[in-house]
């Protein structure tokens, strides 16, 4: 059986964009990432340990090819010196370890952040695909193709609806919890061919390069979490992170993630300066209608026309939920919809809910609060309580 990961481009775009920012601004940072399965009671991932070890060995043997580096160099926001760094980059096996505790799988990446932060998406794709290789692929793929056709038919029927002020833009965000790499490609290619008027890109950089799609992504939770331990006042960490992003990308990649300490706390820092500099906001927890209305009210309060901004929804979406949100917001603001599991792992099998999150930085705990119960992540209860106190954020 071939390795799950065969190219280092096969990761989310935002891993590269955050990686570049950290290499330029905080290259000496040490970090620790933990793999977590939120629904492990039904998964028995511990049995996958020998295969996971083999896949990690294979991952650490990969390097970027000349063609892959040329593709990254073609993206205007990727700097030449970062490409030079990637030219000599190789994952170090000593920085990642895995072990099993009964049916529970543990994976920890620990070391210099610029050498361990990129493990995340590869690890998640590896664990997900190894898990689903234990199922009978033929009936699963048959059901997946039936559901894929239904999604495409729904979008084709959507053509008949009256046009709204802003277009419906759909993206693939499905690499981390996909059924398999080949199925991921099949799904993305099907959307690209059948509904190009709606399907605008993928977070998977490898597929973007291969299928001539726009790579999609800006920042993830880890980027803002890092700043909780980078020497600024905890109360100011979001503003410091956003300011560094603005200075790094100078107008590119202008979608800010809002839920590292909750939407209300985020908006208290997202003042007129940042609201004008960033193109829009990304939703990843909490009720999306509540979140979107709060965002539009914030722009109105700042006397910014919401129609000039963009709301990107990416939390547990399927096509029907995305269309419902579009109908609600599209006459007032630009919208984008990133769909993950429901695109690349909708085959009638129980979906894994796996993440690999930053938990410590420079020896200090960091945490992610959330507007959704169950999505808060922290390994230090004292720090979590302090973070809630500083941002006046109630327990979700």
From TrEMBL:
Which keywords appear in this protein's UniProt record, sorted alphabetically? Glycosyltransferase, Ligase, Phosphoprotein, Pyridine nucleotide biosynthesis, Transferase
Reaction catalyzed:
5-phospho-alpha-D-ribose 1-diphosphate + nicotinate + ATP + H2O = nicotinate beta-D-ribonucleotide + ADP + phosphate + diphosphate
Top class in the EC scheme:
ligase
Q: Which residues carry this modification: Phosphohistidine?
A: 221
- Pfam entry (one): NAPRTase
Q: Which parts of the sequence belong to the Nicotinate phosphoribosyltransferase N-terminal domain? A: 9-128
The protein's annotated pathway: Cofactor biosynthesis; NAD(+) biosynthesis; nicotinate D-ribonucleotide from nicotinate: step 1/1
Q: Which EC numbers does the record give?
A: 6.3.4.21
- PTM per Swiss-Prot/TrEMBL: Transiently phosphorylated on a His residue during the reaction cycle. Phosphorylation strongly increases the affinity for substrates and increases the rate of nicotinate D-ribonucleotide production. Dephosphorylation regenerates the low-affinity form of the enzyme, leading to product release.
One annotated GO molecular function: glycosyltransferase activity
Source domain of life: Bacteria
Record-linked InterPro entries = N/Namide_PRibTrfase (IPR041525), NAPRTase_N (IPR040727), Nic_PRibTrfase (IPR006406), Nic_PRibTrfase-Fam (IPR007229), Nicotinate_pribotase-like_C (IPR036068)
The segment(s) forming the Nicotinate/nicotinamide phosphoribosyltransferase domain are 168-394
Give the protein's biological function. Answer: Catalyzes the synthesis of beta-nicotinate D-ribonucleotide from nicotinate and 5-phospho-D-ribose 1-phosphate at the expense of ATP.
The Swiss-Prot or TrEMBL record describes its family as follows: Belongs to the NAPRTase family.
Protein name according to UniProt: Nicotinate phosphoribosyltransferase
Upper lineage ranks?
Bacteria, Pseudomonadati, Pseudomonadota, Betaproteobacteria, Burkholderiales
- Record gene name: pncB
């Amino acid at each position: 059986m071939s390795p799950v990961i065969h190219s280092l481009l096969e990761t989310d775009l935002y891993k590269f964009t955050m990686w570049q920012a950290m290499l330029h601004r905080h290259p000496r940072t040490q970090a620790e990432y933990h793999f977590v399965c939120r629904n492990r009671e039904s998964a028995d991932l511990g049995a996958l340990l020998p295969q996971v070890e083999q896949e990690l060995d294979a991952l650490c043997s990969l390097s970027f090819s000349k063609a892959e580096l040329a593709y990254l160099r073609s993206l205007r926001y990727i700097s030449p010196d970062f490409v030079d760094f990637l030219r000599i980059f190789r994952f170090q096996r000593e920085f990642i370890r895995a072990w099993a505790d009964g049916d529970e799988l543990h994976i920890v990446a620990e070391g210099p952040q610029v050498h361990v932060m990129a493990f995340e998406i590869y690890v998640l794709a590896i664990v997900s695909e190894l898990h689903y290789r234990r199922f009978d692929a033929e009936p699963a793929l048959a059901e997946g193709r039936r559901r894929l056709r239904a999604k495409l038919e729904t979008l084709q029927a959507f053509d008949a609806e009256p046009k709204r002020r802003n277009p419906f833009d759909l993206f693939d965000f499905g690499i981390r919890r996909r059924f398999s790499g080949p199925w991921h490609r099949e799904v993305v290619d099907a959307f690209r061919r059948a509904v190009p008027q709606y399907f605008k890109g993928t977070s998977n950089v490898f597929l973007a390069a291969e299928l001539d799609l726009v790579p999609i992504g800006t920042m993830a939770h880890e980027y803002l979490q890092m700043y909780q331990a980078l020497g600024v006042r905890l109360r100011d960490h979001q503003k410091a992170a956003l300011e560094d992003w603005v200075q790094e990308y100078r107008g590119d990649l202008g979608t800010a993630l809002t839920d590292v300490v909750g939407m209300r706390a985020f908006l208290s820092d997202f003042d007129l300066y940042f609201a004008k500099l960033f193109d829009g906001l990304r939703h990843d927890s909490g009720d999306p209608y509540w979140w979107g209305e709060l965002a539009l009210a914030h722009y109105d309060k700042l006397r910014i026309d919401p129609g000039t901004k963009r709301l990107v929804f990416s939390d547990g979406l399927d096509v029907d939920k995305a269309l419902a949100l579009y109908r609600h917001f599209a006459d007032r603001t630009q919208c984008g919809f990133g769909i993950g599991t429901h695109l690349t792992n909708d085959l009638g099998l129980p979906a894994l809910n796996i993440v690999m999150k930053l938990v410590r930085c420079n020896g200090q705990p960091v945490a992610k609060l959330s507007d959704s119960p169950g999505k808060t992540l922290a390994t230090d209860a004292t720090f979590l309580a302090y973070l809630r106190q500083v941002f006046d954020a109630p327990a979700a």
